[in-house]
Design goal:
About 85% of the residues lie in helices and about 0% in strands. It is mostly helical.
Length: about 100
């Protein structure tokens, strides 16, 4: 049995780097999206307080709950598509924690 150690190390390095970059980018995008959603909701509540608009809060919070479930489902599908190597997962974790 002939093991190509250089090829294995190269694959692990590429998987780790790809995981790190993916995790880092996803966390940055999530932070931006949450900031924009927060600013939007704050502006809606401010307009409601000023009497400009009326908000049905039950429907608004149901809508945000549905959106959260859809995002979680999309995340699970993306992880199913991505390569499941240990190096990728470790790199993803490090990138997500550093992002």
């Amino acid at each position: 049995m002939d093991l190509n150690l250089n090829a294995m190390i190269g694959d692990m390095g590429v998987g780790g780097i790809a995981g790190f970059l993916t995790g880092f980018a996803i966390k940055k995008v999530m932070k931006l999206a949450m900031a924009l959603i927060g600013a939007y909701l704050l502006s809606l509540f401010w307009l409601q307080q000023k009497g400009v608009i009326t908000i049905n809060t039950d429907k608004l919070f149901n809508l945000t709950g549905d959106l959260t479930a859809q995002i979680a489902s999309l995340g699970q599908k993306a992880l199913g598509i991505l390569p499941g190597t240990g190096a990728f997962i470790a790199g993803f974790y490090l990138g997500f924690s550093k992002g």
